[in-house]
Amino acid sequence: MQLVLRLIARLPLSFLHALGTVLGWTIYGMSPTYRRHLRENLAAAGLDDARVRRGAVAAAGQMVMELPAIWFRRHDEVVALVKSVEGAEAAYESQRSGKALLFLTPHMGAFEIASLYAAREMPITVLYRRPKVGWTEPLMRAGRERANVRLVPADLTGVRAMFAALKRGETVGFLPDQVPGKGEGEWAEFFGRPAYTMTLAAKLAERNNVACFLAFARRLPRGEGYSLHVRPLPSPIEGESATRRINRALESLVRECPEQYLWGYNRYKIPAGAPRPPA
Known about the structure:
alpha/beta, seven-stranded mixed beta sheet, two-stranded antiparallel sheet, 12 helices, 9 strands, globular
């Protein structure tokens, strides 16, 4: 399988994104559940217009088809796909002042490329959730683990490794909009609806030695590559919970490029054993 993915990786990115568009619409047409989640989530966010919906359907498929190129091209070739970077200097300045860096990258754009680009500048520890299909984990690790990238699982050992990396003044990153398991989250508003939200990102962001930034890689038209955007975590609002602050920051980021957010993800599900959302 890895050999097949490496062969696919050599195809032009424009061709992979074109295939991804077809894949996205195929899944949208065949899966009523996926179609419902996408439409409901867009509507709740007030973004269910035809342009955004068409873009979101295509982007979901493009996300799948670009993975071989991101995972199995040489590291320097992947970094070269990033054509512009906006906002990163503030993160570098925080690092130079002695802060550890926390990068939060939601399910938006080519989120896989953010850590690989960061690894060009600094070692980074990345938290990942083991896939449900066990045989795919070696493929995922082979694609994500590069020089300066350390993968740690989303369990107690991985969390400890992240805290240790931050204590050493290093950089860590993960996806903050995954639905956490029982006991790992709390309910916080996300686009007007209660969403079970991980508390880990908020706890790390509040540490005195940590500077927190959000990042996403926006797909450019016609497979021309990506533009990387980095935003500082906004200041808290009085009376706002730490998890709501994270979700508010994510909302702002998503509004910059709503058509490339993964709206079909069931962000509002209730994990087994978790408390019910507030009325």
